Amino acid sequence: MFKLTQKLKRTKYQIKNWARRFLGNNHHKLVLNAQKIDHLENLLANQPNSPRLNSWLRRILRQREKLLMYNQVLGHTQKKRMAYQWRP
């Protein structure tokens, strides 16, 4: 039984670490994405007909849309959780 509890504790810490790295840093990902978009727009001002830069910008914009949609869904579920937890 002791070994099982130790394994469960280790698993809990590993899952927490994974969740922080992949789910908890969306704000940071959005900031980096905005910086990339600014950089690409500056590059496109110099080379407006570059297919490589245009496709890169489209890909980055799609990535930003997905991050924003995920933030909306995550924020909505967190608000629901907080509403259920807080009761005067």
Question: What distinguishing features does this structure have?
Answer:
88 residues; mainly alpha; 0% strand; elongated
Segments where pLDDT lies below 50 for 5+ residues?
A: none
The proportion of strand residues reads under 5%
- The general outline is elongated
The portion of residues assigned to helices is: over 70%
- Overall strand count: 0
Our measurement of the CA-to-CA distance between the termini, rounded to an integer number of angstroms, reads 40 Å
**Mean of all residue-level pLDDT scores:** 80
Calculate Rg over CA atoms.
20 Å
Largest sheet: none
Q: Give me the oligomer status.
A: single chain
Order of helices and strands: HHH
What is the SS-derived class? mainly alpha
Number of helices: 3
Lay out the secondary structure:
Elements lengths: L1 H21 L3 H21 L4 H35 L3
